[in-house]
Amino acid sequence: MNTMMKAVIATATGGPDVLTLVDRPVPAPAAGEVLIRVGAAGVNRPDVMQRSGALPAPAGVSDIFGLEVCGVVEALGDGVDPALHGTTVMALTKAGGYAEAVTAPADHCLPLPEGLDIAEGAVLPEGLFTIWHNLFERGALKPGERLLIEGGASGIGTLALQLAQAWGASVIVTAGGPEKCARLEKMGVAAIDYRSADVTAEVLRLTDGAGVDVVLDILGGDAINRHLACMAYGGRHVGLSFMSGMMAPVDLGLLMRKGLWLTSSTLRPRSDAEKAAMAEGVRRDLLPLIGPEKVRPVLSRRFPLCDVAEAHALLESGENFGKIVLELNGKAA
User: Fold this and answer.
1) Which runs of E-coded beta strand occur in the chain?
2) Which residues share a beta bridge with 19?
3) Residue 123 CA, distance from chain mean position
4) Measured between alpha carbons, how far is 201 from 189 in angstroms, rounded to an integer?
5) Is-contact 301 309, C-beta < 8 A?
6) Using one digit for the tens of pLDDT, what is the confidence trace for 53-88?
7) pLDDT, tens digit, for every residue of 105-156?
8) Signal peptide span per the entry (predicted)?
9) How big is the CA angle at 237 (ends 231 and 238), to the nearest 5 degrees?
10) CB of 322 within 8 A of CB of 157?
11) Which residues are CB-contacts of 198 (< 8 A; sequence separation ≥ 6)?
């Protein structure tokens, strides 16, 4: 591997045009880390929020963008299992994924499921870690329960609905527009167009008035109130994002009468040890569900690394269905 690599940084906070390709030294893996030759990197909402200044990166991390990758392990830090060398892994990264090479803790890496390509592997880590921790751990989704996913056409939404179905749950999703709803219905779920329908009324109709047991909320804002109104007694509301706003009034009386639980989390600031524990949960519970004829990530569009600004613009437009990925064609740094 060369000593220099191409990487994406932002010259300032702002729109997609502030993203630029620069030359940087290839990082060296520290103890417990691996160096990955990146074949592809996922594009995520936190990347966009970091670029715009809405959600700054944690202190001390690289200024290179990118939180998830898939590629080949090229070098090992002290204490890493030698068997990892030369293997293809999916990895959750603290930063640095939009580059030809990146380091990641070895225990934040997962094997690429058989039958998936590098680009598909690159868009899985953020989703798998997030969904396992929030939907299955915090939300405690059980087989036979009813789940509502707000934002079902997103990268997280399209992955979560498949995993929930494989888990044995009944799934309802929302999306913006009839085209997205039609595509979601082809994936075997009931889809509600939140732009034209009364979401609360539709959920209650679809559940014969019982409501849903778990809500996975990717929208945020005042959507929470329609969720509370269509949740079953003892339901769990899990917040993942605040695309529609960070503040909303909540009817505490309704919350108490229905015995509802509100919880939320964000992945990036969690400790290495917490992420390693999540990786073990993903490896045990979710990886066996993934494959060509099983749960498979939905790719909206693939971009070369040099078109990263266009990739960010697509994500911000909300026109994507599934995940957006940057491909590096497996080229060595």
Assistant:
1) 4-10, 19-25, 33-43, 68-76, 88-92, 101-105, 109-111, 146-150, 170-175, 190-193, 212-217, 231-239, 261-264, 299-304, 323-327
2) 10
3) 7
4) 17
5) no
6) 988 888 899 999 999 999 999 999 999 999 999 999
7) 999 999 999 999 999 999 999 999 999 999 999 999 999 999 999 999 999 9
8) none
9) 150
10) no
11) none
State residue 333's pLDDT score: 33
CATH of the domain at 187: 3.40.50.720
Pairwise CA distance, residues 38 & 28, whole Å: 14
The arrangement of strands across the sheet holding 231-239 comes to: 190-193, 170-175, 146-150, 212-217, 231-239, 261-264
Average pLDDT over residues 292-316: 96
pTM of the shown model = 0.93
Distance CA 253, CA 239 (A): 20
Average pLDDT over residues 255-275: 91
**Is there a single domain that holds both residue 53 and residue 163?**
no
Counting Cβ atoms within 10 Å, is residue 18 exposed (0-12), middle (13-18) or buried (19+)? Answer: middle
Residue 269 confidence (pLDDT) = 84
DSSP 130-197: HHIIIIIIIS---TT-EEEEETTTBHHHHHHHHHHHHHT-EEEEEESSHHHHHHHHTTTSEEEETTTS
CA 302 to chain centre: 16
Classify residue 220 by its DSSP letter: -
Looking at the structure, do residues 118 and 196 belong to the same domain, yes or no? no
Q: State what percent of residues in the chain have pLDDT above 90.
A: 86
The span from the CA of 136 to the CA of 238, in Å, is 10
For residues 232 and 312, state if they share a domain. no
pLDDT confidence of residue 243: 67
Helices (H), 73-122: 118-122
Please give the mean pLDDT across all residues of the chain.
94
